[in-house]
């Protein structure tokens, strides 16, 4: 561990500022958890960059009870492994490492006087489960940081101790009624205190003078798991979730939820949830005994994992079925939306675009051509003598003529062109990037097709129609908008109407 200087490091934390009322109440609280004199001495020693293990041991030895507990911890199953038994504070500190030593010094002292309190038993029970899980994860993912991760996981809930000290009634009510899941507890804390216990814990640790890196991880310990997390933070966050599952009333259900959350996160194949749970279960009793803590219930981890996997499989099937059903609903809605949009743009009788869609598209294409220096033409068509046709043969015949004429236009326009019914017997075709001459050739194809194709059969006689066509091209006039372009084509069309019908006129030619 790097040197620690006794100072208030809260200003260095990258967390949102605590609410002013909460910071004030925390600062003035006489019962706020504080470091014991032994921990202060250890931190003072750590403030010297040339401090030795002997200096740490000498500082701890001033507290005989703490020294004995530290030696007991070093000789516990968690730390002893194949080492010989330790008999001195120096040997214990050397075996534990400075991070774990600091954690032990603080947790031993913070835990004093709390053993008869069921609520604090639950808080520390979760912390111990999380610390053991965190150390296992760190040994697989970031071995060099195992002690740091163990310390951060062990102290991740010290903010709850602070909130219990400052607001005992509110905190007791929240922690007694809330579920074990600490993400949900954090939501309740935000509603009551404007802040959650991880942020308070990070602030408290920084105020004690612990390294900012440790206080920061404590503050961030309850966030969502993501693949972008730093490895040490990932281990601490996951350890808390494992502890929540371990202590829940339905651990197999909680583990299955955790498995599902882990699925999209890539870690490493060396992590085995089964081995992790076995490791925690094996090491928890001696650690709990060391702290006079009532150890949480033990489980048949093999059966627990199998149940969790079965639940996950069932949940996955159910989820996939719901997702499939939802996707079908979304596809149907999108299809109906597409159909409605298409219908709103279409003239029901002819199947061509309606006037509103024609004008909207003309405006967009006009602006695009003006901006990029392209040209475009519009062709305005009016069916000749259509009123007489209606009067003579009836509106049903007139409607069939309009419908058939719409089919003719659809067969002649190119991809990218837009043909529509402008109103009554009037039609408009938009020809992007087409000159007046090109539009004239298109108009001649329409006239030729009409001369060859009857639009209806009445009493066994083929009914042919002619059209008057006006053309306007963007390049042939100083048009300010699409409306002026249509008016120019309309004027050209009426010139044909006035001079005999059945012809083509180009604006400006």
From TrEMBL:
SUPFAM superfamilies: HD-domain/PDEase-like (SSF109604), Nucleotide cyclase (SSF55073). Its EC number is 2.7.7.65. Residues 32-224 form the HDOD domain. One of its GO terms (cellular component) is plasma membrane. Its cofactor is Mg(2+). It is an enzyme of class 2 (transferase). InterPro entries: Diguanylate_Cyclase (IPR050469), GGDEF_dom (IPR000160), HDOD (IPR013976), Nucleotide_cyclase (IPR029787), Rev_trsase/Diguanyl_cyclase (IPR043128). Keywords: Coiled coil. It catalyses: 2 GTP = 3',3'-c-di-GMP + 2 diphosphate. Residues 316-343 form a coiled coil. Residues 374-509 form the GGDEF domain. It comes from the Bacteria. This is diguanylate cyclase. It comes from Vreelandella arcis.
């Amino acid at each position: 561990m790097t040197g620690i200087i006794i100072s208030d490091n809260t200003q260095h934390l990258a967390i949102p500022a605590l609410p002013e009322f909460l910071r004030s109440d925390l600062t003035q609280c006489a019962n706020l958890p504080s470091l014991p004199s032994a921990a202060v001495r250890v931190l003072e020693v750590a403030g010297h960059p040339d401090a030795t293990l002997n200096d740490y041991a000498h500082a701890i030895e001033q507290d005989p009870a703490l020294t004995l507990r530290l030696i007991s911890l070093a000789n516990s199953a968690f730390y002893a492994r194949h080492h010989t038994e330790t008999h001195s504070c120096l040997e214990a500190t050397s075996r534990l490492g400075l991070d774990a030593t600091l954690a032990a010094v603080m947790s031993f002292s913070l835990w004093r006087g709390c053993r008869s309190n069921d609520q604090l038993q639950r808080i520390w029970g979760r912390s111990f489960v999380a610390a053991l899980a965190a150390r296992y994860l760190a040994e697989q993912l970031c071995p060099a940081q195992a002690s740091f991760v163990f310390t951060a996981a062990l102290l991740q809930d010290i903010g709850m101790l602070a909130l219990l000290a400052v607001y005992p009634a509110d905190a007791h009510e929240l922690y007694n009624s809330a579920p074990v899941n600490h993400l949900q507890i954090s939501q309740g804390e935000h509603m009551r205190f404007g802040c959650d216990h991880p942020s308070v814990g990070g602030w408290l640790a920084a105020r004690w003078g612990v390294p900012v890196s440790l206080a920061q991880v404590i503050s961030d310990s309850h966030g969502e798991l993501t693949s972008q997390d730093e490895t040490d933070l990932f281990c601490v966050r996951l350890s808390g979730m494992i502890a929540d599952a371990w202590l829940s009333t339905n651990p197999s259900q909680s583990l299955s939820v955790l498995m599902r959350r882990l699925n999209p996160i890539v870690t490493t194949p060396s992590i085995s949830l089964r081995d992790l749970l076995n490791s925690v279960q094996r090491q928890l009793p001696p650690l709990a005994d060391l702290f006079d803590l009532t150890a949480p219930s033990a489980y048949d981890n093999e059966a627990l994992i199998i149940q969790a996997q079965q639940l996950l499989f069932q949940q996955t099937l159910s989820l996939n079925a719901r997702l499939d059903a939802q996707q079908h609903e979304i596809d149907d809605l999108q299809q109906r939306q597409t159909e409605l949009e298409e219908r709103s743009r279409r003239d029901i009788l002819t199947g061509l675009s309606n006037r509103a869609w024609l004008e909207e598209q003309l405006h967009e294409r006009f602006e695009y051509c003006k901006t990029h220096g392209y040209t475009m033409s519009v062709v305005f068509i009016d069916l000749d003598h259509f009123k007489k046709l209606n009067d003579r043969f009836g509106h049903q015949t007139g409607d069939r003529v309009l419908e058939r004429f719409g089919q003719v236009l659809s067969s002649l326009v190119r991809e990218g062109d837009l043909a529509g019914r402008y109103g009554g017997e009037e039609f408009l075709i938009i020809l992007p990037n087409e000159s007046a001459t090109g539009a004239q050739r298109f108009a001649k194809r329409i006239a030729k097709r009409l001369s060859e194709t009857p639009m209806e059969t009445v009493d066994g006689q083929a009914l042919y129609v002619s059209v008057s066509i006006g053309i306007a091209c963007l390049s042939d006039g100083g048009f300010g908008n699409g409306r002026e372009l249509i008016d120019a084509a309309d004027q050209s069309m009426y010139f044909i109407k006035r001079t005999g019908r059945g012809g083509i006129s180009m604006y400006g030619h």
